[in-house]
User: Fold NAD(P)-binding protein from Wickerhamomyces mucosus.
Amino acid sequence: MFSSNLDFNPDELPYYNPIKDRKVALITGGNSGIGFYTVLHLYLHGFIVYIAGRNFNKVSQAIKKLKIEANRRRSLIVENDLNSRFLGELKFIEIDLLNLLNVEKSTKIFKQLESNLNLLILNAGVGALPFGITSDGFEIQFQTNFISNFLLTQRLLPIINNGGRIIYISSIAHRLEFFQFDRNWNFNLKPNIIFTWFRYAMAKSSGIQYMKLLSIKYPNILCYSLHPGFIMNTNFFAYWTRIPFFGIFFWFFFQIFGWFFGCSNEEGSFVTLNCSLNKKIYKNGSYFTTGGKLINSSRISNDLNYATDTWIWTIKELEKRGFKNLD
Ligand SMILES: NC(=O)c1ccc[n+]([C@@H]2O[C@H](COP(=O)([O-])OP(=O)(O)OC[C@H]3O[C@@H](n4cnc5c(N)ncnc54)[C@H](OP(=O)(O)O)[C@@H]3O)[C@@H](O)[C@H]2O)c1
Assistant:
């Protein structure tokens, strides 16, 4: 149904019946980029998908497009296959990762709606932004890519049962944390074009550490992290491409880079889909790269002592802000 340069076919992943099996997924940032295609395939595979986003209109637009695209693809399938493939459901839930109280409130709402969560995909993220501090007092990238994911996950863990999965979208850039960064550092240094990547790396490396520790603490829940690939046509690079005048040069650079090293938005979703749906079980806490290939993440992100320090630091910082009972 979908032709790709990668050795991966989403049609080979299991299909579920939304009524009999009722597989529930929550994905952050499912309205654009890689997340959009992750949602599309989960929907085609029969999942009840909650798209967690900060903007109702954007998510509603995405849901409309997802339904049209899903029906178009189903119209190309032979009738025999359609009998065993059911469309799931698409729902909106408000979560703004830049607001911890909102994250907490959303988890309460979600737990009133659903008593079981099969799949949590921590996909939303920002990168390469100028330095900024959120109203919660964290650096913007660190909060969006890590702190809020931590809070969201800790609050949803009680409804993720045995066999559930938590997938964290990290980045190859986590390797830029090449020695132990103090979690109190916010790298408010110039030039931004360099230090923004250290801020991003610290967040994405912390996320991998978090998945590794979760996999030890909750061995019956599969916790994976991954690098999706270089996908240059998502909104991820919008800050740079929208800079007046110079933006066009960045856009050209990203296109050329993408042409040589990148993959499409849909191919970028494959590793997430593989981690989310593949019946083949890999070692819990593993890290994957483009197309679903198992590889090692950085030495720093694999250091369990350091990961424990990050965990304790995060709990303390959240407690200072009034978020209790997290461990
Ligand atoms: N593109 C790449 O080459 C690449 C490479 C490595 C890793 N990644 C990672 O892949 C993930 C997806 O990125 P993408 O490339 O698909 O970029 P994208 O198109 O910009 O998608 C990011 C998603 O995150 C959401 N988001 C951002 N801030 C949020 C917030 N405060 N609260 C709630 N949602 C928020 C965005 O929602 P809005 O639409 O409301 O902004 C959007 O849906 C990110 O974690 C990124 O770090 C991407």
User: Anything to note?
Assistant: The CA atoms of residues 241 and 249 lie 8 Å apart. Residues 10-320 form a domain with the Rossmann fold fold (CATH 3.40.50.720). The longest strand covers residues 48-53.
